[in-house]
Amino acid sequence: LVAYPLIDLKRHNISPRNYVCLLEKSLIATCAKYGIKSMTTEHPGVWTTPEKKIAALGVHLRRNITSHGVGLNVNTDLWWFGRIVACGLEGKSTTSFEAEGVMGKSVDDVGKVFVQEFANRLGVEE
User: Fold this and answer.
1) Which residues form the signal peptide (predicted)?
2) How far apart are CA 33 and CA 30, in angstroms?
3) Cα–Cα distance between 17 and 24 in angstroms, integer?
4) How does strand 65-72 pair with strand 2-3?
5) Burial 106-117 (b: 16+ CB within 10 A, else e)
6) Count of alpha carbons within 13 Å of 101, Cβ hemisphere only?
7) What letter does residue 100 receive in the DSSP assignment?
8) 21 assigned to active site
9) Looking at 32, 39, 85, 87, which residue is catalytic?
10) Is the CB of residue 16 less than 8 Å from the CB of residue 125?
11) Which pLDDT score is estimated for 126?
């Protein structure tokens, strides 16, 4: 699942750091809806353990308008991640909903949950 929200942070009175926290909390809540316990660590992204990353996060701002966003592994083929050092973090691995035992969920299904979690935290009704 790739989500690139375009948000005017000034309009919503959100600092860049709070925006990153909003994204992280939305991802953690999305995982929780499917029974996956996740967290933040000292490294960017969202993790199921300190060694297994389930979501990446990257934010770009220009004149307080966000671009870029998040990547959440739902049913991603993780084979390629074994061949690279993701995010430059030696000894860390990547996981997904399927690898965590949540089978049969589509990116569409999970995307709808993420959008709702994100909107709730942003204070958007629809």
Assistant:
1) none
2) 5
3) 11
4) antiparallel
5) ebeebbebbbeb
6) 5
7) T
8) no
9) 87
10) no
11) 65
CA 95 to chain centre: 12
Q: Residue 89 pLDDT > 90, yes or no?
A: no
Tokens of 113: 């949950």
Q: What 3-state class would DSSP assign to 48? A: strand
What's at 2, amino acid-wise?
V
Alpha carbon 21 to chain centroid, angstroms: 11
117: its two tokens: 């979690």
Quick one: tokens of 73?
């592994």
Distance CA 10, CA 16 (A): 10
CA distance 20 to 107: 22
Indicate the residue type of 13: N
